Structure formats: structure tokens, C-alpha cells
């Protein structure tokens, strides 16, 4: 558990679980006791004596559960309000969920990362965040198990996800809405860095943008998460889900390469299936062109 909101959610779960354990223990104990104590003697064929109920017990087993369930309800409502409350000065990050990939961008001018798109989420610890989430195709759902909060991403509207990470580390981002064939591979990750670590990461991105060209392309290759699926010697990338770029790219033209990134289903490499690679058509032009430039620089024989 790695967020302020998650801590509150866990407290309710613990409270509810304790209630369940106690109630179950009492019911099970009485049941076992009754089975043993009131067992019919061998040869006893008589009917049991008629009982008309017991008002005191019935009132007790109505009132106690009512109090417990109401307490869970009230506590939950308080936590929902607390978890929805967003302190001013929070950071806004845009999230786009599409079949079948997550992408993140940082619209806040203070971050100086406008126009950049990332394939993984990078955030500083102990700072409140609001994710503004959109989808161009179908319904997805954003979930980081360790953060506990979960929110649907719905085409046509913007949904919001508020979180204050409290632990640094790398956590999985999982899509929890069945969204098509690639649903199970629709994963990314979030890196929660210290304040200083985030600042270094941010400045590295800014530098790459300032230098442009191949250095930006190398950064884009990492930022978009290409290495998770593809192998590329120049980037020490060893992914095996998609084609090995050092093998498949030689001989391709710039336009073919661009098409493979923006519209990957038009030409499928033998041995791989359609719909596996998401379209990167929403990547800003500057990033896309620098990525192409970088791949040209890195792969021998590309464009020849
Ligand atoms: Cu997107 Cu499941």
C-alpha cells in the first residue's frame, strides 16, 4: 500500500474484516454447540417441542448488525469524501487509454514538459496528483494495486483520479476493464521518485527536447516504452513481445517505418499478430520525427 488514499481504504477493509471474523466465529460456535448439545438420542423419534421464537434474541440480532453495517456505511462515505478532496497546488497529468496502451503527458507549465508524451507515468512522492483521463476508443479502467484507487476511463468524457503517493518505487498500472483482444497486455508502470529524483528526470527530458534530433529520439524510445516489447542493440533493449528492430528494420523506407509506428496493423511482421502493438498516432510530431531519426542512426541499413 503506497498512497494516502490507500491507507484510508485499507483501514475500512480491516475494520470490515474484523467484524466479519467476529460474527462468523460467534455463529459458527453456536451452530457447533447446538449440533452437539441438542443431538437426538438414538431411538428418539419424537418431534421437537414447538418454539414460538425469542423476542429478546431477535431484537439483539437485528440491532447489532444494523449498527455495524451503518458504521461501515458512514465510515466509507467519509473516506470517499476525504479521498476526493484535492489540496490546491496539486499536479495535473493527462492520461490517455487506448487499445492497448497507456500514455501520459504533463500539461503543467511548471513541469516544462508540454508536447511530450510518455509511455510510463513518473511522479514525485508525497505530492498530490490529479490524473485527467480520456479514451478515444472503448472503456478502460486505470488501476495501480498498491494505490488502491481505481477509476474507469470512458470515451467522450474526462474522468478524474486523485492520488498522493507515499512510497517511492515502481508499481504496475493495470487495465481492469475488458477492452478487447489486447486487454491482458494493457499494462504500464508508474515510477514514484523522490523529489530530487523527479527533478532530475524532468530536467533530462527538458534537455532532450532542447537538443532535439537523435538525443530526443533516444529519450522518446525509452519514454514510450518501446524497449518493453522490442529489442534494439543501441538502446540495450531486449523485449521479445514484438519484432527485433535490428533485424526487421534494415531495408525499410522512412515512410514504411513511420507507418509501422503510427499504423502498426497495416504491415504485420511474420510470426506476430495483428492488434498486438498499439497505434502511436497521438505522439506529437517532434517526438515522432526524432524517434525515426534515432532509429535511422541506430539500425544499420535502414532506409537503404
Ligand atoms: Cu484497456 Cu482493458
Task: Walk me through the structure.
The chain is of the alpha+beta class and 304 residues long. It has 7 helices and 11 strands. It has helices at 4-37, 55-84, 195-211, 213-223, 245-248, 254-262, 285-298; strands at 91-98, 101-105, 121-124, 129-134, 140-143, 150-153, 159-163, 169-175, 187-193, 231-232, 237-238. The strands form 3 sheets. The chain has a 5-stranded mixed sheet with strand order 3-9-8-5-6. It is elongated, with a radius of gyration of 28 Å. Residues 97, 100, 140, 175, 177-179, 183, 186 line the site of dinuclear copper ion. Dinuclear copper ion is lined by residues 97, 100, 140, 175, 177-179, 183, 186.
Structural class: alpha+beta
Bound molecules: dinuclear copper ion
Distance between the termini: 51 Å
What overall geometry do the principal axes of the alpha carbons give? elongated
Largest sheet composition: 5 strands, mixed
**DSSP summary, beta strand count:** 11
Task: Give average pLDDT, whole number.
Answer: 89
Defining traits:
304 residues, alpha+beta, 11 strands, elongated
Please specify the SSE layout and strand pairing.
Elements: H1 4-37, H2 55-84, E1 91-98, E2 101-105, E3 121-124, E4 129-134, E5 140-143, E6 150-153, E7 159-163, E8 169-175, E9 187-193, H3 195-211, H4 213-223, E10 231-232, E11 237-238, H5 245-248, H6 254-262, H7 285-298
Parallel strand pairs: 1-4, 3-9
Antiparallel strand pairs: 1-2, 4-7, 5-6, 5-8, 8-9, 10-11
Helix pairs in contact: 1-2, 3-4, 4-7
The chain binds dinuclear copper ion.
